Amino acid sequence: MKRFYRLCLLLSLVLFAQHSFSQAPLSASLKQIATQLKPVHGSSQSFEQSMTFDAARPYLISASVKETDKKGQATVSEYTFNLADIDPGSINFEAKKELMTLTLKTRSKMAFIGLKENGTQKNNTAQLVLYGTDADNARALVELFRKAVPQADAQFLADIKLPETYETLVKWISSNLDSAPGGSDGLQQSTELDKANPLLMKLVQKRSEKGKSIEQLYQFNAADLSPQRVTLDVDGSVILVKLENKDRFIRSQKNGQWEKNTDVAEVRCLTADKARRMQMAWQKLLPLASKQLDAQRAKYIQYASLNDGLKRVAAAVQPADDGTEHIEQQLTPTCLSTLSRKLSGRKSLGQTYRFYWSDLDGQNARVRSDGNAFVLAVPTKDKGKWITTTQNGQRGSYENTVEIRSNDLETIRFVPALLAKLTSECQKATAASLPAGRMTWVTDKINAVQDPKGQMTYQFQKVDNCNYTYTARQNGGKKSTELRWDINLADLNPLGVKINVSGSELAIDLATNGKDKLIKAYKDGQPTSYANQLSLLINDLEVARPMADIWQQSIAGCRR
């Protein structure tokens, strides 16, 4: 046991020695710089300069320049910065009249240098000016700073010891959020995690700005943030760690009021050193969050049966608000589905959308940000207008997109991935459950069609298994007109069977093989020109969809 303790002590001493040795070159360089910073006297002003550094983290520098004019008025500028943020290529000296100036600039000219003048906090700056007593002194300072910067950079990176797991990184971020006492620059920050889903985060900030108190809330899923888009910016004397999502999936609330969704959340840091560490922590956290989200998605899209999967989609449809209207919405969990919406607020409106999931393109279902909420949009295949709509009971135009609104992104987040599977399964189920009787059913449905204007009647009659007649009679006025077509299914192209939608009108289009004119036509009993296509008026998309499938199968059967 004693031997074990001696080994632990020895290991600790070795690690301490290694850490101390790695700091030694930087500390030595900084001590040389401090020695070279001397009082400088010009014709109308004089400068007293000094530099100190943190013994534990020597790359953290404090520099002071006291400038006294010929009237004896003094201005003390105090700079705080991380030497690793300085661009070594920017370190140069030049003569300005009787003064030899030495300039240090930050990388990418970011204002990462904290500044106080006579004790008053000022906006950050991107450069620091020191003074040499002469050219030799200025040249020596340039060489020493250029030598010290890479040492500082290496030491800074070596000192960053971030946790390895998602949970420990979240705790690190939470415990390292900057705060400041109340007043004109007061700041409080905290994070909250959802108990059921640790990927859901809230970033809460309370700060003072121009004498006003601001309460800011950001709400987001950590997996929606991109590690490549965790960037730094400057706001006055504060460094911002900007967490970005290009889809505007970040909800934002200011002083208790929800604002439009945003593409960026901002963590406020009081020093560039803290900001760089915070940036690295988020960049390490986000890929871990993405892996957890992938696991959640994989679990969500597993279901026991088609019915179970459809019920899962229906459960995602919940009441929502769009800022001015409250929306009650429900979805039936069947392959032939109805989305019912009731809007209340400035106006009352009842809407229904009826459609076959097999007509929708689940592969291209998407969730988008809309105002302060989210929308699940599912298009039809090939942008066909296969969705029947009504408003307050009145039939509307056919549409090509179903949209479901949600105030909670998580309720609809995985639905697109689920629909990518369900739409193809519904297609198989719909094809397998065509109405009994097939062409007899088609005949009954066409004969039941009613012209919305009440001027046309239609009759579809069977001659034999592959031959039919279609008659359209126009009534009204002094004379009625009768149009008739003789149809041989063997002359038709099964791939030419299409559902044709125009506004609120719906028809089944039939086309001949090669578009040859093979359909015999009559007007008032007299032969007219042969046709190569024919449109059959249909009142209901729910009828048109299975009817189109029956036409295709029957045509194929007659062509054998």
Structural topology:
Elements: H1 2-36, E1 40-41, E2 45-53, E3 60-69, E4 74-82, E5 92-96, E6 99-105, E7 113-117, E8 120-125, E9 127-132, H2 135-159, H3 166-175, E10 187-193, E11 200-209, E12 212-221, E13 230-235, E14 238-244, E15 251-254, E16 257-258, E17 264-269, H4 272-300, H5 306-315, E18 320-321, E19 325-331, E20 336-345, E21 349-356, E22 366-370, E23 373-379, E24 388-391, E25 394-395, E26 401-406, H6 409-412, H7 415-431, H8 439-447, E27 456-464, E28 467-474, E29 481-488, E30 498-502, E31 505-511, E32 519-523, E33 526-531, E34 533-538, H9 541-558
What does this entry look like structurally?
By secondary structure, this protein is of the alpha+beta class. Helix content is 28%, strand content 39%. The chain is built from 9 helices and 34 strands. The strands form 8 sheets. A 6-stranded antiparallel β-sheet has the order 1-2-3-4-7-8. A hairpin with a 2-residue loop joins β15 (251-254) and β16. α1 runs antiparallel to α2, α3 runs antiparallel to α4 and α5 (306-315) crosses α7. The protein is elongated. Residues 1-24 form the signal peptide. This is DUF4412 domain-containing protein.
